[in-house]
Amino acid sequence: MLFLHSMEQETFSTLLGRALDRVASEHGQHYPEGGAKAWGMVGASYLGFALYGLTSVQLRSIQYRTRQDFGPVILDCKWYDRLKAECLDNRESADVLIPGPDEKQCRCSVTEQLFLEMLDFCREG
Length: 125
Prior knowledge:
By secondary structure, the protein is α+β, with helices and mostly antiparallel strands. It contains five helices and three strands. The protein is globular, with a radius of gyration of 13 Å.
């Protein structure tokens, strides 16, 4: 299992937000200012829901507010492998910091499968 050294100082939402922004830009699409970061928080919150008891009400609130403020996520399923490679550092799993129900950051292991489920959740949102 890998603990991303950069994750010691940044949360998974920050890492995912940067990856979303970068991959979208590579495909000629752009998030509004703050949009990729907000969608990164939606993804991280999904992981908090799946692993640490973040409630569905909390998760949906973050998701709906992000969609209202920044529009839909810019994410094509063809980009999943690129995002997975970037966020999981080409590993089957990675230890990351995600939000828990009390807004504290919790360290957890995110597998490829859970990462892909999270991307699907974002696309459906």
